[in-house]
Amino acid sequence: MIELYYWPTPNGHKITIFLEEAGLDYQIMPVNIGAGDQFKPDFLKISPNNRMPAIIDRNPVDGGESIAVFESGAILQYLAEKTGKFIPSDVRGRKTVNEWLFWQVGGLGPMAGQNHHFTQYAPEKIPYAIYRYVKETNRLYGVMNRRLEEYEYLAGDYSIADMACYPWIVPYERQQQNMADFPHLKRWFESIASREAVIRAYQKGEALMTTPTVTEESKKILFGQTSTKDR
C-alpha cells in the first residue's frame, strides 16, 4: 500500500499518473494546500519542505520499516525503481530518462509555475515578469517539440519523464501558449491525454476539487510563506 499525500496540482498529478499506470494499490491522503494542510506537524515529518506530493510506502522492497519520500521527481524515481516500470534497466536508457525528468523538475515546472503566478495570481500585473515567463515557457515548449520530432516520447519509450512533463503542459492555454505552434508536442500531448490511466488519475483529482484552491484568502497561505512560517 502506498499512502499518497496529494492535492490535484501538476506535481500531484505526476504521482497519480504513475500509480494508475503501474496498477499499484494506493490511498490518497488529501493535503489541501489552500487551507494550509501542508503546515500540519504530521505532514512536515514526511515532507519537511511543506510541499506535496509525498508518499509513505508501507511495503518497501527491502521488507523493512515504511519509507517516506518527498519531492515529486524523487517519488517518481523511487516508484519506478520499486516496480521496475517506466524506467529502463540499462544505464544509457536510465540516463536519458533522468535527464528529462530533471529537465522538468529544474526547468519546465519552475518556469511554468512562475508563468502561472504572474499571469493569474499576482496582485498586480507586472509586464516584464509576464513577458519573461511566458517567453521562457515558450522556449521550453520548443525544446520538447524538437525532441519529440525525433522520438515518440521524451526518452524514446513512455517513461516517468513523460509523466513528469505532461501535467505541466495541460494548462497550456493559461500559460499563453498556442499548441498549434508545436505539432510534435501536440501529438505527444494528445497521445498521453488519451491513456486510460491518465484519465483515471485526473478523475481522482477532480473528485477533490469541490472548491477552488486559490482564493484571495488562500493566497496568504500559498504565496506569503517565510522561514518563520508567517503567512
Automatic annotation (TrEMBL):
InterPro entries assigned: Glutathione-S-Trfase_C-like, Glutathione-S-Trfase_C_sf, Glutathione_S-Trfase, Glutathione_S-Trfase_N, GST_C, Thioredoxin-like_sf
Ranges of residues in domain GST N-terminal: 1-87
Family statement drawn from the similarity comment of this UniProt entry: Belongs to the GST superfamily.
Cross-referenced SUPFAM superfamilies: GST C-terminal domain-like (SSF47616), Thioredoxin-like (SSF52833)
Designated name of the protein: Thiol:disulfide oxidoreductase
Transmembrane portions of the chain: none
Sequence ranges assigned to domain GST C-terminal in this UniProt record: 90-213
